[in-house]
Amino acid sequence: MGGIKRQGGEMDDMRRAAEDVLIEAGALTKCDVHGDVYDCDSDRLASAYPIANSKISSGQIVLPSGWTRKDFTDVVKSVYEDNSNIDYCPSCDKNDRS
Prior knowledge:
Layout: H1 2-25, E1 28-30, E2 37-39, H2 45-58, H3 69-83, H4 90-97
Antiparallel strand pairs: 1-2
Helix pairs in contact: 1-2, 1-3, 2-3
């Protein structure tokens, strides 16, 4: 069980790092009020990959044992796709409807 928990934690860490890369690239936006992440500019997704690679090279992102850069860029793409159909902060929208 410990190995599975550790792997889950590593994936959570990589997804957070990928989210940060996407925000830095301008592909995703983080709501200043709620912290929710949503799509900003799909044209900026491609610029996230060099940012990710640069952060890996500089040691700002440390990949889990056995991971490759490709594994991480796959996570970047996955995190983007998970948020790409949302073009507003869901919490702000929910509050506006209340």
